[in-house]
């Protein structure tokens, strides 16, 4: 317990900051959405653009999360179970998507796979369109959210060591049995935590997706992109309804994350 | 099952962990690999288990070459220093783990597995803890669960890596006696790794003393203690006092002190170091003709029937010496009234100037 007034003051300041900068804006989003009552909100929710954006957002997340789950496990396994040249470099490279601005990532993909590039030309000869379509959006979302699972797993797997795995091998377990019966249960809560973070990022990604989506209404707009579009159209209720929806997803994610962190400690 | 280790070499990068190790462990013996950390004993154990591959050399079980056999097919029981229990499984499930992984043809029925787990739990005296999770157990209990788990598949080879290293002194003592008794009950060939001399001496049929990736000596506990093969072995097995001086063929001298030693010509004239074990000396109020080593009592600690006395050499030598005396003997000396005493070694180990062990001698 704090004992002096300045300790209390510091705590009060922290609370004030959290309320001003986090809680208040969230409350305002909801207040703005419902400013003209419930009916316009329901109407906005039932619009075809909104429905499409919700579905698209969920589809992107539904592809991104399993891909990055697998990628994260494999990467963490490699880095923690094998000694090889370039291991340190690899762990550094994992962080590139974190370090780089998502817009830059989007532009990179555009340059590599867009119709201006050789690869893009070749793909378009085969009638494959990656940019300004779902595949491109999924690709950049995978890119920006790929470090989460690996980043959560690597320190955990390092601290847990390999004794249990070795014990299982000595009791006759095959590689797959070791992973399934020993490694996976050891990391399951951290893994779920990584999934939650990946999902949050995949659902909320704006910059990278905005660059490669081409912002085609009713086709390539995810929820964050739709919010921007509606806002520019002065459709306040629509924009804030979509924003409220995203915020709700974020809150659910936050709740899950808290529960998982708590489970992990047990 | 007997274990033969032949000319094992292993390096990690530029560091050579094992230089040409050969060992022979007869069936049903309990052998202790003893050495300081970095002596390669754990690496050797892991090579025998198949967790590590040797650069060259062979491992045989009952003369059958298992060098290239996968760890999962060697069927050895292994106990890890940090137990390595599966934290998400109960004690019973931990023990049953290996049984449940057996191929269908060999796997016992559910009932048989349950019975086997119950038998093992009673063997390690943990009958009531079947449903606990590892996090709910004490260190000693975890260690016993790890042992029960290692024995579940009825291995003929049991390997233990510093099995009591993480436990406190009292539990350690109880557990190692218990391990000794257990080893007599079940028929299994065991190798255990330890850096604790007392532990190795008490538990093992045979001790293998290792240093810097080499076997220094292999023999019964009594053998390695009484007839150490090298200075390292002598040094490593218990505390020693080192007395530095000059030898002239009849007398060893250092300042005011001297000892009359007959080495039968085994020690050349010149610098001669003498090793003295703390319990192989007495104290007296007067010197003898053969031993004149004046000392002053600098401190003492009483534990049970033994008194450990710290002695400062008077007019010779340098460092403080440590001697263990019987409590009765100590009281009879009455050191409060006679603080000036004389050290009377009963047995000394000579060390020549090039570091080899010479004969063991007594002043006469």
Automatic annotation (TrEMBL), chain A:
UniProt topology in membrane = Multi-pass membrane protein
Transmembrane stretches, by residue range?
54-77, 89-112, 132-150, 190-216, 236-256
What Gene3D superfamilies does the database record attribute to this sequence? MetI-like
Arranged from A to Z, the UniProt key words for this protein are: Membrane, Sulfate transport, Transmembrane, Transmembrane helix, Transport
- Ranges of residues in domain ABC transmembrane type-1: 54-264
Name the InterPro entries on file.
Answer: CysW_permease, MetI-like, MetI-like_sf, Sulph_transpt2
Q: What is its main location?
A: membrane
Transport recorded as keyword: yes
Instruction: Tell me where on the tree of life, at the top rank, the source sits.
Output: Bacteria
Entry's localization field = Cell membrane
Quaternary structure annotation from Swiss-Prot or TrEMBL: The complex is composed of two ATP-binding proteins (CysA), two transmembrane proteins (CysT and CysW) and a solute-binding protein (CysP).
Function, in words: Part of the ABC transporter complex CysAWTP (TC 3.A.1.6.1) involved in sulfate/thiosulfate import. Probably responsible for the translocation of the substrate across the membrane.
Q: Under what name is this protein listed?
A: Sulfate ABC transporter permease
């Amino acid at each position: 317990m704090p004992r002096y007034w300045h300790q209390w003051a510091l705590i009060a300041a922290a609370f004030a900051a959290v309320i001003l900068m986090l809680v208040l804006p969230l409350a305002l989003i909801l207040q703005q959405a419902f400013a003209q009552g419930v009916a316009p909100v329901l109407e906005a929710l039932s619009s075809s653009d909104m429905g499409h954006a919700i579905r698209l957002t969920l589809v992107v997340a539904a592809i991104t999360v399993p891909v990055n789950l697998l990628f994260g496990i494999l990467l963490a396994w490699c880095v923690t179970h094998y000694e090889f040249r370039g291991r340190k470099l690899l762990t550094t490279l994992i962080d590139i998507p974190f370090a780089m601005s998502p817009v830059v990532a989007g532009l990179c993909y555009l340059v590599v796979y867009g119709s201006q590039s050789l690869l893009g030309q070749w793909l378009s000869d085969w009638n494959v369109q990656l940019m300004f379509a779902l595949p491109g959006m999924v690709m950049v979302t995978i890119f920006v959210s790929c470090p989460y699972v690996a980043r959560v797993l690597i320190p955990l797997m390092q601290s847990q060591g390999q004794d249990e795995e070795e014990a299982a091998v000595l009791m006759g377990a095959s590689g797959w049995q070791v992973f399934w019966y020993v490694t996976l249960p050891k990391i399951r809560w951290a893994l779920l935590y990584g999934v939650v973070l990946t999902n949050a990022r995949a659902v909320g990604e704006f910059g990278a997706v905005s660059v490669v989506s081409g912002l085609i209404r009713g086709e390539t707009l995810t929820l964050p992109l739709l919010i921007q579009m509606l806002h520019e159209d002065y459709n306040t209720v629509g924009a804030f309804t979509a924003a409220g929806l995203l915020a709700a997803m974020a809150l659910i994610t936050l709740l899950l994350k808290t529960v998982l962190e708590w489970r992990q400690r047990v | 099952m007997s274990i033969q280790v032949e000319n094992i070499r292993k390096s990690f990068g530029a560091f050579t962990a094992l230089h040409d190790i050969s060992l022979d462990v007869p069936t049903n013996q309990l052998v202790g690999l003893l050495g300081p950390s970095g002596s390669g004993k754990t690496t050797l154990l892991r090579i025998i288990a198949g967790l590590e591959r040797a650069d060259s050399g062979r491992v045989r079980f009952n003369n059958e070459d298992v060098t290239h056999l996968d760890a999962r097919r060697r069927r050895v029981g292994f106990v890890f220093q940090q137990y390595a229990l599966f934290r998400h499984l109960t004690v019973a499930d931990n023990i049953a783990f290996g049984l449940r992984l057996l191929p269908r043809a060999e796997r016992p029925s559910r009932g048989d597995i349950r019975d086997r787990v119950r038998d093992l739990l009673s063997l390690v005296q943990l009958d009531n803890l079947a449903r606990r999770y590892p996090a709910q157990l004490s260190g000693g209990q975890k260690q016993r669960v790890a042992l029960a788990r290692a024995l579940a598949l009825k291995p003929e080879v049991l390997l233990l890596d510093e099995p009591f290293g993480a436990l406190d002194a009292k539990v350690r003592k109880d557990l190692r006696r218990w391990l000794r008794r257990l080893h007599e009950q079940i028929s299994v060939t065991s190798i255990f790794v330890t850096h604790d001399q007392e532990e190795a001496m008490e538990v093992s049929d045979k001790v293998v003393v290792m240093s810097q990736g080499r076997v220094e000596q292999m023999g019964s506990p009594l053998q390695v203690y009484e007839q150490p093969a090298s200075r390292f072995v002598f040094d490593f097995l218990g505390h020693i006092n080192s007395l530095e001086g000059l030898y002239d063929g009849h007398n060893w001298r250092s300042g005011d002190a001297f000892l009359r030693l007959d080495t039968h010509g085994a020690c050349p004239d010149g610098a001669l170091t003498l090793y003295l074990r703390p319990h192989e000396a007495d104290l007296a109020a007067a010197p003898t003709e053969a031993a004149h080593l004046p000392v002053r009592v600098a401190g003492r600690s009483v534990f049970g029937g033994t008194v450990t006395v710290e002695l400062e050499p008077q007019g010779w030598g340098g460092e403080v010496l440590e001697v263990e005396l019987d409590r009765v003997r100590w009281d009879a000396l009455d050191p409060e009234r006679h603080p000036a005493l004389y050290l009377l070694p009963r047995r000394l180990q000579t060390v020549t100037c090039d570091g080899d062990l010479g004969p063991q001698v007594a002043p006469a």
